[in-house]
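Exercise 7.
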Amino acid sequence: MTDRTFDRLERFDERSREYPISAVAPLTAQTVVWPCPTWLNQGSEGACVGHAISHALACPPEPRTVDSLFARDLYFEAQKIDQFPGGEYAGADPRMSGTSVLAGFRVARREKYIGAYRWAFGPAELCNGLSTGPAVLGVRWHAGMSNPGRDGLVRPLGSVLGGHALCCRGYDAQRKMFILRNSWGRGWGADGDCLVTFDDMASLLADG
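Solution. The predicted structure, written as tokens, is:
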């Protein structure tokens, strides 16, 4: 069994509230699923932010070819510009794992992988954003989320293991469930994905 590293670091800039996804995306709670033809696996490395953003970049509407090297490079570049000391890149001192989703998106924009990024402050706004493309979530990962049920459902129950980042690639309006691509390979969950209910997503976004 792979020893997982949960080190998505929390970094919220209050100025982000000036850029809600609701300002540019229509109000909707319709079913939408963005196909993701890529299944990355971060292994025991704490590079979830780079992998989550890479999964989002691999999805339509403007899919990009990505691999684990691409994801790790994005992660290292994010560590170089975040406000946390050190990193895992060559020459980093001290040696520290993890970075923030904010730093990852700043790198993605700097490298012109994306034109802009907006923020969702609840599950309804997340639905809005999914009408235009996939999203990247930074959440506190609970022990009850590590082993999905047969249908891929995870629940934020049990102790918090640390921070984790995932790509949210869809919403099933009939079942009121979000579809998330994790970075633990295709053999995890339901073909690499897990499901989170609307109510549980509200809790995760409020908490993380």
